[in-house]
Amino acid sequence: MHGKRVTVPLGTALLGAALLFGSGQVSNASTGQVQANATMLSASEYAMATGTLRKEPPPGPRERERMRDRHMREHMRDRHMREHMRERHMREHMRDRHDREMRDRMRDRHMRDRYHRDMRDRYDRDMRDRRMRDRHMRHDMGIPQRQSQSQAQAQSQQQGAGVGQNQSQSQSQSQSQGQED
């Protein structure tokens, strides 16, 4: 293959011409007036002129396998590191979340107790106002007032004493009538 001629692209030909023949003849390259021997190089000349421009051969099966193994190793290492950082972040997040949940729970319980206390006080206040209003309305309308519990108990005891005497008399009368029969 030493004597064969190879057709090359213009940029590579200019580079090879500059290396082989010096830059004197290549100054005409912008006008397209390049000598034929500058565009047609033998394979050895082409290899000499473009030593760094040669494409390296594709890797063989063992090299490919080594590259794949190394790639997989690095991939797993990166993934392990990412997962580790994520777990650590989640642990810190859960720690903060636990504290925050306890704080929120205490605050919610406090707010709930306060809400129920306010509802209870409002209910008691409304009932008291309603009783006062009813009392005033009854007084204005001439309806007798409701008695307090102590007054009602005292009155029922007084009535009960009178009723109890009458009941005992009627029971004794019915017993005597039963004996006569």
Automatic annotation (TrEMBL):
<feature type="signal peptide">
    <location>
        <begin position="1"/>
        <end position="28"/>
    </location>
</feature>
<feature type="compositionally biased region" description="Low complexity">
    <location>
        <begin position="145"/>
        <end position="181"/>
    </location>
</feature>
<keyword id="KW-0732">Signal</keyword>
<feature type="region of interest" description="Disordered">
    <location>
        <begin position="83"/>
        <end position="103"/>
    </location>
</feature>
<feature type="compositionally biased region" description="Basic and acidic residues">
    <location>
        <begin position="126"/>
        <end position="141"/>
    </location>
</feature>
<feature type="region of interest" description="Disordered">
    <location>
        <begin position="126"/>
        <end position="181"/>
    </location>
</feature>
<protein>
    <submittedName>
        <fullName>Uncharacterized protein</fullName>
    </submittedName>
</protein>
